[in-house]
Every structure is written in structure tokens, then in C-alpha cells.
Amino acid sequence: MASDLRRAAATAAELSAVSGLPVAHDAALRETYAGAWQGLTHEEIIERYGEQYAAWKRGEPVRRGGGELETEVADRAAPVVLEHVEKLPENGTLVVVSHGGTIRTTIGRLLGLEAYHWEGLGGLSNCCWSVLGEGARGWRLLEHNAGTLPEPVLGDDD
């Protein structure tokens, strides 16, 4: 499943071509809407919205540029992910292609972290991924911002 925005949809299409599996697109997986901040450089945001930017960096709930709160992004994205997880066959894998902010907030929500701590997960680089798995007490973060496939561990008997 993937965001319906261009870059995520294109990445999902490449994965689909390799795997032969279809992609379901969902607008709930779109990136955080940042209102008036959209399209501005980091420097322009600080120049025009310095106080708002500083409050956001301190971890205060801020509608950046009049856009969405991070909790609202998680409110729309996490249920879609959970809905698709419920449909998986036993030991199935769900691949979600989305955007850094949406992925971070969704992971934070699934892990049960308070919104203030979501920033602690760090960013997600383009074309990198995170892996979550089900643990005894809920979701577990197994990998974050991974960019290469795991290498096999070679033992002495190989």
C-alpha cells in the first residue's frame, strides 16, 4: 500500500514491478500538510515563521503554517496500516510506501509513544525503510532508516 502522491506512488510501482504484487493507494498515507510552509526552504520558514518554528522544534503541538498537527497525521495513517495488517495471512508482510513525517508519526503511534517523543525516532531518508514486528506486548521497532538489505552472517562452518 502507498500514498497516492507522486514520489511514493512511483516507488511503490517499482516495488510492484519487482514483486509482481499490486499496490493499493490511500490518501491517508500522504505527507503532513504544512500549510503556508509548503514549498519554502528551511531558511524561509525560519525568516517568516520563526516563533512558530521554534515552538515546533521544542516539541510543542504546532500547526506548521496552519497545516496538520503531527497527531492528526498519525490519526489518519495508523488506522489504515492496522486495517491492512489485519488482512495479512499468517506470517505475511505489509509494505507501506509513504513519506518521512507520516512514517515517523505512524511508527510512534504504533509503538505507543507519546507524541512529544516521536522526534526521537529520527528522520527517514529517501528510499530507506523501517521494519516493525509484533512483540509480546505490541509493536516493536526492529530496524529504522535502513538503506541496505541485511548481509548474511557467515559462521566458521560456511
Textual characterization of the structure:
This protein is an alpha+beta fold. The chain is 37% helix and 10% strand. It is built from four helices and two strands. It has helices spanning 6-19, 42-57, 70-86, 100-111, and strands at residues 129-135, 138-146. Strands 1-2 form a two-stranded antiparallel sheet. The protein is globular, with a radius of gyration of 17 Å. The model has no long low-confidence stretch (mean pLDDT 92).
Could you give a quick summary of the protein structure above?
The protein is α+β, with helices and mostly antiparallel strands and 158 residues long. 37% of the residues lie in helices and 10% in strands.
Question: Tags for this entry?
Answer:
single chain, 158 residues, alpha+beta, two-stranded antiparallel sheet, 4 helices, 37% helix, globular
Outline the fold blueprint.
Layout lengths: L5 H14 L22 H16 L12 H17 L13 H12 L17 E7 L2 E9 L12
Antiparallel strand pairs: 1-2
Helix pairs in contact: 3-4
Instruction: Please state how the strands of the largest beta sheet are arranged side by side.
Output: 1-2
Q: Oligomeric form of this entry?
A: single chain
The fraction of residues assigned to DSSP E strands is 5-15%
Note the run of SSEs as H and E: HHHHEE
Number of strands: 2
Q: Tell me, what's the shape?
A: globular
Helix run count: 4
Regions with pLDDT < 50 over 5+ consecutive residues? none
Structural class: alpha+beta
- The separation of the N and C termini measures 38 Å
Q: Summarize the main sheet.
A: 2 strands, antiparallel
Helix-residue proportion: 25-40%
Rg to the nearest angstrom? 17 Å
What value does the average pLDDT take?
Answer: 92
